[in-house]
Design a protein that fits this description.
By secondary structure, this protein is of the alpha+beta class. Helix content is about 55%, strand content about 20%. It has helices spanning about 1-15, 15-80, 85-90, 100-110, 115, 150-160, 205-215, 275-285, 285-320, 340-385, 390-405, 410-425, 435-455, 475-490, 525-535, 540, 545-560, and strands spanning about 125-130, 140, 160-170, 180-185, 200-205, 220-225, 230-235, 255-260, 265-270, 435, 460-465, 470-475, 495-505, 510-515, 565-570, 575-585. The longest helix is centred in the first third of the chain and has 66 residues, at about 15-80.
């Protein structure tokens, strides 16, 4: 255990302070908060689910109550008919002939006013008897007309005296008549002195039963089922012209209530809608957001600010210590805070003042003495060099040029003159930088000499904005790129080629473009050369290759403090273009 703890301590010592702070927040703040908030949210959601379950229980009770009242009102009417002696006598009487039955029927209807006595509007009453003298029609018929019906067969098999029955009638009837049937059946055997079988059926309006369920306006799907068969629903499945559908949504049922009603075991299924959980979350969204803000967001903001207070100042202090290799140590500016870190930064500044004083006293004074000695030695060297007259070479070249003119060798004289211009640039190296217009004169002389060499194979064009003429750049910079275009572009090409030099100012940048229509380069070679130009340094000059280009790029980077950019485009067999961009304020 101690070994594990030592390994843990070692790893913690290697982590950055920023990571340690986040570990502290993660395991000591965020994780416990997530656990506690999860418990709170679970309790909220559980309370919502309990409330939702209670609401569904109330809905099922209301549906049961409404459905039971509709059936019970029909059952009470059936009971009144069951106990009505006049109806029993009418169904039991034997009539001499059909005319005698019709006369008796009219008298019975007139005396009892059967249609109005029960106050029914959406229920159809029919009574049956095995009296052979009854003529089928109206509210009365013989039993032999119903013996093939499913409800009669169910009554015979079950032996029940009264029951509720749903069935689908696929026989011939009016296209507008519902094929889904809901009837209440009761035997009329209250008066046992009659041996005839008598039955009353009350057929309820199925469409009205569906409307009653829909008009209860519950937003959850409700299904009243019998033996997995959907009898009624407020969400479809109640087409009066089709057979009853099978209930196949058991996984979506949120609450079920069983209802026993006149011999039938019905199930009231209430489904859970897809948005119930979302609704619960939305309903509790203010509380959830408050918990998130108080327990996570605010601690995270506070931890981030504490972390910033530590790490930013420690990083600033670390960066200051990293500069100890400089000749002069720099102080930390804008010290914030008066805690331990702020005190450490103030102590560092006092240390810097003391060390800089020591450096000034010991190191800088000694360095100044060395610089003075070097300057003295350089002055002595220049004095020795000044004793040698470098112009004797120019005088010699001038003599050769004049001699060529006397002999009318004007081409040779022109070549000597251009060579003298170039040599003067090489000899007069009193300073590294030169005006661009003088550099252009040197380029013009160089290309003129190359023109004598290549003849018609070389053509060139030089363009310079006058505004750029006084700007100063390192000596022999442009001619190095022109020479590279001539040697590596035109010299290797057997067909005529051009060299274009353009010097112009674009916004706040000096742009120098050297373009040739020579051999061009492969993409790999172009990328390698561009990398050398961009990363030019002293080490690259020690390697073989195009050191002239590297030399020119390095000098440009040094004079501009690395603010120069190089562009290189080349295509094999087409040509190459080098673009140099220098901020004007760096020249």
């Amino acid at each position: 255990m101690k070994k594990i703890w030592n390994i843990f301590q070692e790893k913690m010592d290697n982590y950055e302070l920023k990571k340690k702070m986040y570990f502290l927040f993660l395991f000591c703040v965020l994780f416990p908060l997530i656990v506690t908030d999860s418990v709170i949210v679970y309790n909220f959601l559980d309370a919502e689910r309990s409330q939702r379950k209670h609401e569904m229980e109330n809905i099922s009770n209301a549906v049961e109550y409404s459905f039971y009242n509709n059936i019970d009102s029909v059952a009470r009417i059936a009971k009144s008919i069951y106990m009505n002696k006049s109806i029993d006598e009418f169904l039991s009487r034997e009539y001499e002939n059909p005319l005698d039955y019709v006369t008796g029927y009219q008298s019975f209807i007139k005396d009892t006013m059967l249609d109005d006595s029960f106050g029914l509007e959406n229920t159809r009453i029919r009574m049956y008897s095995d009296n052979e003298t009854i003529v089928n029609g109206g509210e009365f018929a013989r039993i032999d007309t119903i013996k093939d019906t499913p409800w009669y067969q169910y009554m015979t098999e079950s032996g029940k005296d009264q029951f509720l029955y749903f069935y689908y009638y696929d026989g011939v009837n009016s296209p507008l008549e519902a094929k889904r049937k809901t009837i209440f059946v009761r035997r009329l055997n209250f008066y046992s002195n009659s041996k005839m079988e008598k039955i009353v059926t009350l057929e309820m309006d199925y469409s009205k039963m569906v409307r009653d369920l829909v008009e209860m306006n519950y937003d959850v799907p409700i299904f009243i089922c019998l033996d997995n068969k959907i009898l009624l629903s407020n969400k479809g499945y109640s087409n009066v012209g089709t057979d009853f559908s099978e209930f196949q949504m058991e996984k979506e049922v949120a609450y079920t209530k069983t209802m026993s009603l006149y011999g039938m075991e019905l199930q009231i299924h209430i489904l859970q809608t897809n948005g119930m959980i979302v609704t619960e979350i939305v309903n509790n969204l203010p509380i959830l957001l408050m918990l998130l803000m108080v327990n996570i967001v605010l601690p995270l903001i506070l931890m981030a600010e504490i972390n910033r207070s530590f790490t930013s100042r420690i990083r600033k202090l670390s960066e200051a210590f990293e500069r100890v290799d400089d000749e002069r140590l720099t102080m930390i500016e804008d010290i914030q805070g008066h805690d331990e870190i702020g005190s450490l930064m103030n102590n560092y500044n006092r240390m810097v003042i003391r060390i800089n004083d020591l450096i000034q006293t010991v190191y800088k004074d000694k360095l100044r003495e060395q610089e003075i000695d070097i300057a003295r030695q350089k002055a002595e060297l220049l004095a020795l060099q000044s004793q040698i007259n470098p112009h004797f070479m120019f005088n010699a070249l001038e003599s050769i040029r004049m001699h060529s003119i006397i002999k009318k060798e004007y081409e040779t004289a022109d070549m000597v003159e251009k060579l003298a211009v170039m040599e003067r640039q090489n000899v007069e190296w009193s300073e590294d930088c030169i005006e661009i217009r003088k550099e252009i004169e040197f380029v013009n002389a160089y290309l003129g000499l190359q023109k004598y060499r290549f003849g018609d194979r070389l053509s060139y064009q030089i363009e310079m904005d006058e505004a750029c003429g006084n700007l100063r750049i390192p000596r022999l910079t442009i001619v190095t790129f022109v020479e590279n275009a001539c040697v590596h572009g035109i010299e290797s090409k057997t067909t005529p080629g051009w060299i274009f030099l353009r010097v112009y100012q674009e916004r706040d940048e000096l742009c120098i473009e050297v373009e040739d229509t020579g051999c061009g380069m492969e993409e790999d070679a172009m990328e390698e050369l561009h990398k050398k130009m961009t990363d030019a340094n002293i080490e690259l000059l020690k390697k073989k290759g195009r050191v002239g280009i590297v030399n020119a790029c390095l000098r440009l980077k040094m004079i501009t403090n690395d603010h120069v950019t190089f562009g290189l485009e080349s295509e094999k067999g087409v040509g190459t273009m080098v673009q140099i961009r220098i901020p004007v304020n760096c020249l």
